[in-house]
Amino acid sequence: AKEQRHEFVIQEASVTRLCNARTIVTANGQYPGPTVEVSEGDSLVVNVVNNATYNITIHWHGVRQMRTGWSDGPEFVTQCPIRPGKSYTYRFTVTAQEGTLWWHAHSSWLRATVYGALVIRPRDAVPYPFDFHGEIAPIMLGEWWDMNPIDVIRTATRTGAAPNISDALTMNGQPGDLYTCSSQDTTVFAVKSGETNLLRFINAALNTELFVSLAGHNMTVVGADASYTKPYATSVIVLGPGQTTDVLVTFDQPPGRYYLAARAYASAQGVPFDNTTTTAIFDYGASSMASPAMPTLPAYNDTATVTAFTTSLSNLHAVELPSAVDEDLFFTVGVGLFNCSAAQNCGGPNGTRFAASMNNVSFVLPSTVSLLQAHYQGDAAANGVFTTDFPANPLVQFDYTAQNVSRALWQPVPGTKLYKLKFGSVVQVVLQGTNIFAGENHPIHIHGYDFFILAEGFGNFDAATDTAKFNLHDPPMRNTVGVPVNGWAVIRFDADNPGVWLMHCHLDVHITWGLAMAFLVEDGVGELQSLGAPPPDLPVC
Ligand code: C2O
What we know:
GO molecular function: copper ion binding; hydroquinone:oxygen oxidoreductase activity
CATH architecture of the largest domain: Sandwich
CATH superfamily of the largest domain: Cupredoxins -  blue copper proteins
Domain Plastocyanin-like: 10-124, 137-286, 390-523
Bound molecules: CU-O-CU linkage
Function: Lignin degradation and detoxification of lignin-derived products.
Enzyme class: oxidoreductase
Strand content: 35-45%
Helix content: under 10%
Shape: globular
Largest sheet: 7 strands, mixed
Cofactor: Cu cation
């Protein structure tokens, strides 16, 4: 195992897309940012120097960060932001994970442009559990706004209205040639006839779940979120923001050019979304300049295809989980509305402002210290910053997936509430979608952990009948689960990583609105002493 050193200089750069030049925040002037490549077992030392005009932090999405919580990155959770002119060095090891993860800014909406791939190959002499000839560069799906994404969310936060949807979807930062004024902004991948390649997909979009398809070619899924799956052949893959999927493709079609295309899966009824199609071109190197073949993508509301895909993924290995758990938690997830006074003049539906919550708590980040630092400094300090009374169950039970439930039942309450987990406990969480404002598929992500997905379904979770559906034998392991629209998903993990770990919807607009909570995992030693003291360069607020 090696130590790999990188420097990310966060800086503004001018980038032109759709014939509009815009100043965006980048890492090292690159958009998307640099790919980080490691072998399993390597450690990473990444010095982040902030030469931009915004505060920033970097999060290593999906990296377990075993006892390295100071390097996880979400602002005000594990660290204060790196201010302009300052720097911070992230130090961690990537172990027991192979495949594709990524890194992104975890501060306001900066991850719209500050993100990159993290490729984890098996260590020397360890084979992949499948055969292929070579790899295509990671394919990062994203969104492009014709205005500064920070201004988009600042405006929405001020007015309480929904933020503007993006103006284009992107692949490796390029919209592709189906947009006006975009033929120069198309990624082309050269492939060799007869070869089987490994393709790594990352959904780095802020607010859009995506269908992805390659014209004329099937894809065989072999991994997701840096965990191997049993091979699964499909013509379309589905990724929520935060998720990755590794697939094998055999280029066995007549030599030519084929579009790889991605389009939104928009599960919320009546909510506007970016309905454009982004493309890249897979080129066999044939001289023909005929237009590329176009794949058929599912309709934007094709939930059946999403379910067929997600329920077809299983762990490559048998894991055999026990049926008993130590913590049996039930969290509702959803978007709601805050009441506003006439004087506040809110821009949301009927003079309200948008809010989102888990178990009716709309998460509020501290602003003077990070949660982890507050806890490390001792309970006295922590007491003023957060409380540990996040509810294990909804405080008010109602028909979660019915339409038009009384707003009195679900008025979200702002708070900085954590749920305390004993070190080593077996934790199960039922994530129950709600239909309060609109039912929607929520990609729920946990920091510091991978989890098994035991089951998913529609309607209200019913322990009496749904427990029988749990896959305890070979459940897929991920760091982000799509909770079905007006449905539920059940996840399981062992609380073996001490620290403060954020759990949130990876639709950025929802985390902005409060669809988050955090776990405080004790270390069995007392007050997280096993984490070690905060690094000397940890930013102060
Ligand atoms: Cu990919 Cu909290 O983030």
